[in-house]
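Regression check, adenosine-5'-triphosphate case 302:
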Amino acid sequence: MTKTSPKQESITNQATSCSTSTAQKEQEQKTQLKLEKIKHKIAIISGKGGVGKSTVTANLAMAYASEGHKVGILDADLHGPCIPKMLGIERQPLKSGIAGIFPAVGKLGIKVVSMDFFLPSDEAPLIWRGPLKMRAIEQFIGDVAWGELDYLFIDLPPGTGDEPLSIMHFIPDMDGVVIVTMPSELSEAIVKKSVTFAKETGIPVIGIVENLSGYVCPDCGKKVDIFKSGGGKRISDALSVPYLGSIPIDPRVCIDSDSGLPFMAANQSLPVAKAFIEIVAKIKEFLSVNQFLSNQEKKVKP
Ligand SMILES: Nc1ncnc2c1ncn2[C@@H]1O[C@H](COP(=O)(O)OP(=O)(O)OP(=O)(O)O)[C@@H](O)[C@H]1O
Ligand SMILES: [Mg+2]
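Current build output:
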């Protein structure tokens, strides 16, 4: 084996770090260019698992797409991707061209990129540490041919780990986060961390959604607060963040997402759909106020 002198090693290291930083800069530029074509970016987060983040993401996407908007979903839950299944999109190898990797396209033209498309089977786990996950998320933004979008929703895994941090890092101009919780005190305590996380990373909190908020008996009409009640509103009051609304428990939500048809698509008149419609209205209000304020800021700046 040929030995390299310390000097040669140092030159090689410099060359590698130089090309790495050039490659890194190119990737950053690509990411930036892709993001410029997306009008609104909204992440759905929660400190707690299983509270309905993906359900909220899929239904918000459906709600906006059914109004004729161009919508995409970045499924940033790398270890437990489930957006394709919720939207009825089969696992498929994503095609690529000069513009990049083409997202899969689901109902109402919703574009989706998910780790699910890169795994060989349902049973195959992703065994990756932080840096690889960060790189994958950067590629999910910069190497994907998202095209012009009105809304990009980002579905995140629970907690404040690698994936949310990477998303906040690569999309610093995000419109904001929607935080999902359930009514229990346990969830309340954990979800407060998400509010602090958003505040510390400088991302606006669009508001809190309380999912799994009571069950109305279809026979007698009585509401039963299965997971207690009011946790979401308490977080919103305690931490001075907007409250977007409560989504009741409805077994049809689960049945529909298992069969790949988000609830919003088929059941517009039911309480869950009405709750989503109110949440969508509040998100729109937030975005238009933000737009107004940023236009004012631009006017003030010379
Ligand atoms: N309002 C609801 N009524 C009935 N079932 C619901 C409701 N919201 C969510 N579910 C069901 O609860 C389960 C968990 O929801 P979901 O996968 O959206 O949670 P999550 O927060 O994304 O979970 P994870 O932390 O694992 O990513 C799903 O089976 C979903 O269909
Ligand atoms: Mg999820």
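Comparison notes: The domain at 31-300 is CATH 3.40.50.300 (Rossmann fold). The pocket of adenosine-5'-triphosphate (ligand 1) is lined by residues 46, 49-55, 77, 80, 82, 157-158, 211-212, 247, 249-250, 253-254, 257, 272 (CB under 6 Å). No diff flagged against the previous build.
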